[in-house]
Amino acid sequence: MQLIDISNLIIAAIGKLFSTEVFIALTAAYIGARATSKATTKAHNYSINKSKHDEIETTRNTLKLIKVELTSAWEIYFSEYGSDLLELPNGEPCTDIFPIGKNPFPIYDSAPSCLANIDPQLSAKIIRSYMRVKG
Q1: Which of 7, 41, 60, 102 has the fewest other C-beta atoms within 10 Å?
Q2: pTM, entire model
Q3: CA–CA separation, 24 and 31 (whole Å)
Protein backbone atom coordinates (compact mmCIF):
# COMPACT_ATOMS: atom_id res chain seq x y z
CA MET A 1 0.00 0.00 0.00
CA GLN A 2 1.35 3.32 -0.98
CA LEU A 3 1.11 6.67 0.72
CA ILE A 4 -1.60 7.82 -1.65
CA ASP A 5 -3.74 4.79 -0.84
CA ILE A 6 -3.35 5.41 2.89
CA SER A 7 -4.30 9.09 2.52
CA ASN A 8 -7.36 8.15 0.41
CA LEU A 9 -8.39 5.67 3.08
CA ILE A 10 -8.03 8.34 5.81
CA ILE A 11 -10.01 10.86 3.75
CA ALA A 12 -12.78 8.31 3.17
CA ALA A 13 -12.94 7.51 6.92
CA ILE A 14 -13.14 11.21 7.79
CA GLY A 15 -15.86 11.67 5.20
CA LYS A 16 -17.88 8.85 6.77
CA LEU A 17 -17.25 10.30 10.24
CA PHE A 18 -18.91 13.54 9.23
CA SER A 19 -21.73 11.88 7.32
CA THR A 20 -25.37 12.88 7.73
CA GLU A 21 -26.16 9.85 9.89
CA VAL A 22 -23.40 10.64 12.37
CA PHE A 23 -24.45 14.30 12.51
CA ILE A 24 -28.09 13.30 13.15
CA ALA A 25 -27.04 10.82 15.84
CA LEU A 26 -24.88 13.41 17.63
CA THR A 27 -27.64 16.03 17.42
CA ALA A 28 -30.23 13.59 18.79
CA ALA A 29 -27.92 12.61 21.64
CA TYR A 30 -27.40 16.28 22.53
CA ILE A 31 -31.13 17.03 22.47
CA GLY A 32 -31.88 13.96 24.59
CA ALA A 33 -29.21 14.86 27.14
CA ARG A 34 -30.46 18.45 27.35
CA ALA A 35 -34.08 17.32 27.84
CA THR A 36 -33.05 14.84 30.53
CA SER A 37 -31.03 17.50 32.33
CA LYS A 38 -33.97 19.94 32.30
CA ALA A 39 -36.38 17.26 33.51
CA THR A 40 -34.04 16.27 36.34
CA THR A 41 -33.60 19.89 37.43
CA LYS A 42 -37.36 20.47 37.32
CA ALA A 43 -38.04 17.31 39.35
CA HIS A 44 -35.43 18.33 41.92
CA ASN A 45 -36.95 21.81 42.32
CA TYR A 46 -40.42 20.27 42.64
CA SER A 47 -39.14 17.93 45.34
CA ILE A 48 -37.59 20.82 47.30
CA ASN A 49 -40.82 22.85 47.09
CA LYS A 50 -42.89 19.85 48.16
CA SER A 51 -40.62 19.25 51.16
CA LYS A 52 -40.96 22.89 52.22
CA HIS A 53 -44.74 22.73 51.82
CA ASP A 54 -44.94 19.50 53.82
CA GLU A 55 -42.81 20.98 56.61
CA ILE A 56 -45.02 24.08 56.80
CA GLU A 57 -48.15 21.92 56.87
CA THR A 58 -46.70 19.72 59.63
CA THR A 59 -45.78 22.78 61.69
CA ARG A 60 -49.24 24.30 61.20
CA ASN A 61 -50.97 21.07 62.25
CA THR A 62 -48.67 20.67 65.26
CA LEU A 63 -49.48 24.20 66.42
CA LYS A 64 -53.20 23.44 66.08
CA LEU A 65 -52.72 20.29 68.18
CA ILE A 66 -50.74 22.23 70.81
CA LYS A 67 -53.63 24.69 71.05
CA VAL A 68 -56.10 21.83 71.49
CA GLU A 69 -53.84 20.19 74.08
CA LEU A 70 -53.53 23.36 76.18
CA THR A 71 -57.21 24.25 75.84
CA SER A 72 -58.32 20.75 76.80
CA ALA A 73 -55.93 20.62 79.78
CA TRP A 74 -57.23 23.98 81.03
CA GLU A 75 -60.88 22.96 80.59
CA ILE A 76 -60.34 19.71 82.48
CA TYR A 77 -58.39 21.41 85.25
CA PHE A 78 -60.90 24.22 85.65
CA SER A 79 -63.97 21.97 85.56
CA GLU A 80 -62.53 19.58 88.15
CA TYR A 81 -60.54 21.94 90.40
CA GLY A 82 -60.72 25.56 89.30
CA SER A 83 -64.22 26.31 90.53
CA ASP A 84 -63.40 24.80 93.95
CA LEU A 85 -60.25 26.94 94.15
CA LEU A 86 -62.22 30.08 93.38
CA GLU A 87 -64.69 29.28 96.19
CA LEU A 88 -61.95 28.94 98.84
CA PRO A 89 -61.86 31.79 101.37
CA ASN A 90 -58.73 33.95 101.33
CA GLY A 91 -55.87 32.43 103.28
CA GLU A 92 -57.31 28.90 103.39
CA PRO A 93 -55.05 26.28 101.75
CA CYS A 94 -56.24 23.97 99.01
CA THR A 95 -55.88 20.35 100.07
CA ASP A 96 -57.02 18.77 96.81
CA ILE A 97 -54.54 16.77 94.75
CA PHE A 98 -54.59 17.03 90.99
CA PRO A 99 -52.98 13.84 89.63
CA ILE A 100 -51.14 14.75 86.48
CA GLY A 101 -49.61 11.44 85.35
CA LYS A 102 -46.36 10.57 83.64
CA ASN A 103 -46.82 12.38 80.33
CA PRO A 104 -49.66 14.91 80.38
CA PHE A 105 -48.52 16.73 77.23
CA PRO A 106 -47.52 14.19 74.56
CA ILE A 107 -47.98 16.59 71.65
CA TYR A 108 -45.77 19.29 73.13
CA ASP A 109 -43.15 16.73 74.13
CA SER A 110 -42.92 15.51 70.52
CA ALA A 111 -42.94 18.97 68.89
CA PRO A 112 -39.49 20.56 69.44
CA SER A 113 -38.59 20.40 65.75
CA CYS A 114 -41.81 22.18 64.81
CA LEU A 115 -41.27 24.86 67.45
CA ALA A 116 -37.97 25.68 65.76
CA ASN A 117 -39.84 26.47 62.53
CA ILE A 118 -42.04 29.24 63.95
CA ASP A 119 -41.48 32.81 65.08
CA PRO A 120 -39.11 32.78 68.10
CA GLN A 121 -41.43 35.04 70.13
CA LEU A 122 -44.37 32.68 69.63
CA SER A 123 -42.30 29.59 70.45
CA ALA A 124 -41.02 31.35 73.59
CA LYS A 125 -44.62 31.96 74.70
CA ILE A 126 -45.57 28.33 74.06
CA ILE A 127 -42.53 27.04 75.95
CA ARG A 128 -43.20 29.43 78.86
CA SER A 129 -46.84 28.28 79.03
CA TYR A 130 -45.82 24.64 79.18
CA MET A 131 -43.13 25.32 81.77
CA ARG A 132 -45.70 27.04 83.97
CA VAL A 133 -48.23 24.24 83.53
CA LYS A 134 -45.72 21.46 84.10
CA GLY A 135 -44.07 23.20 87.02
Answers
A1: 102
A2: 0.62
A3: 10
